[in-house]
Amino acid sequence: MRARRERSKSALLAVSSGGGHWEELILLRPALLEFDPVFATTDPELSKRDGLERFHVLPDANRDGAWRALKCLLASVNLVVRLRPRVLVTTGALPGLFCLIAARAIGARTIWIDSIANSDQPSLSGRCARPFAHEWFTQWPHLAGDGRRFDGALL
Amino acid sequence: MILLTVGTQLPFDRFVEIVDRHAPRLPDRIFAQIGRGSYVPANMDWKPFIGPIEFEERIRTCSLIISHAGIGTIVMAQKHAKPMILFPRRAALDEHRNDHQLATVQALGDRQGIRTAMTEDELVAQMAGPHSLPVLGPDLPGRDRLRRTVSDLVRDVLQAPGSGQ
User: Fold this and answer.
1) Are B146 and A154 inside 8 Å of each other by CB?
2) ipTM here
C-alpha cells in the first residue's frame, strides 16, 4: 500500500541537528536511500538545499538552553511516536539523542554515529545515547571498544 | 572573494578581529559570517548568519575559506574542492564548551586542502599563502565501509522475515 502511505512516513527515520552533524548525515545518505528514509533536522532550509521531500523540522537545541531543550525533547518524542519508525539513525547531537531514546522506547532499532569532530573522546550526547543505542559507531579507531564500534569514517 | 566563517552556534571575536585587522593586505575582499559577536568588522563585508543555501553558494564561489574548526565547513570545503585555513576555538578562552576543535585540527589538519593556524602569527602567515588545494576523488574507502555497514544493519531489520508492511 505504498502509494497510499502518508508521504511523511517511513520505516527509517534519519535525524540530526543542523551544521556539521547534518553534513555528516548527508554524507551517509547514499547508504539510506534504498530504504526511502524520512529525514528530520533543525533548519527547514536544508530540505530545499538537499532536495529532500520527506522531511520534518525539529526545534534547535543544545545543552546550554534548558527551555529550548525541553521543546526539542517534546517535539522529538512527538515525531517518533507519530512516525513509528522501525529503524532510527542519527549523527547527533541533542535532537538525535532525544529521537534515539524515544525510538528505543517504541521498540525501534537504534543506530548512533558519533560525529567525526569527537576525535579525543566520545561526545557528551553520544555518551548519553550509549545505553539506548543498539549500535554505536565512533569514527576514530582509537575510540573503539567498550560498546563503541569503529567501521570506517565519513570524512 | 575569501570566506570567513565561525559557524552558527557561537561567536568567535578573537578570530574575526585578527582576520579583520589583516584583511586590507589580502589580495581578495573578505565576506565574513561572524555569528552574534560584539566585534564589528571594519575591513570586511559581514553578516551574523547566512542560511545553508547562501552558505554553500559562497563556498562554491570563494577562492579561500578561513574558518573555525567546524565539521560542517570542512565537509563543504572538501565537496567544492576549496583550500581552507582552520583556526580552532579554545575552551580556555571561553570560545567553546570543550577543546574538541583542537582535537579536530590534530586529527584532520594534515589532510590535503587544509592548513591549520594555532596563533595569530600562524594565521597571518597562512593567509598570505600558498594555500593547500584539496584533491577530489572517490578515494575514501572508510566512507564506503561505514555506509555499507549501516546499510546492512538497516536492511537486516527492514527485510527480516515477518516484517512485511
Assistant:
1) yes
2) 0.93
In-domain check, residue A46: yes
Residues 69-98 of A with CB under 8 A from B: 86-87, 89
Segments forming the whole domain that contains residue A130: 2-141
Query: Does residue A148 sit within a domain?
Result: no
Contact A12 B74 (CB under 8 A): no
CATH class held by domain B2-137: alpha beta
* Model confidence, pTM: 0.93
> Does any CB of chain A come closer than 8 Å to the CB of residue B112?
no
Q: Which residue of B has its CA nearest to A108?
A: B157
Considering the domain boundaries, does residue A155 fall inside one? no
Chain A (105-134) residues lying within 8 Å, Cβ to Cβ, of chain B:
109, 111, 113, 115-120, 123
Does the residue A101 lie in any domain? yes
- pLDDT per residue rounded down to tens, chain B (165 residues): 999 999 998 999 999 999 999 999 999 999 999 999 999 999 999 999 999 999 999 999 999 999 999 999 999 999 999 999 999 999 999 999 889 999 899 988 888 899 999 999 999 999 998 888 887 665 689 999 999 999 999 999 998 776 554
CATH of the domain at A78: 3.40.50.2000
Q: Where are the domains of chain B?
A: 2-137
Residue of B nearest to A87 (CA): B154
Cα–Cα distance measured from residue A42 to residue A19, given in angstroms and rounded to the nearest whole number: 9
The structural domain count of chain A equals 1
Determine the residue among B112, B147, B156 to mutate to test chain A binding: the one whose Cβ has the most chain A Cβ atoms within 10 Å. B147
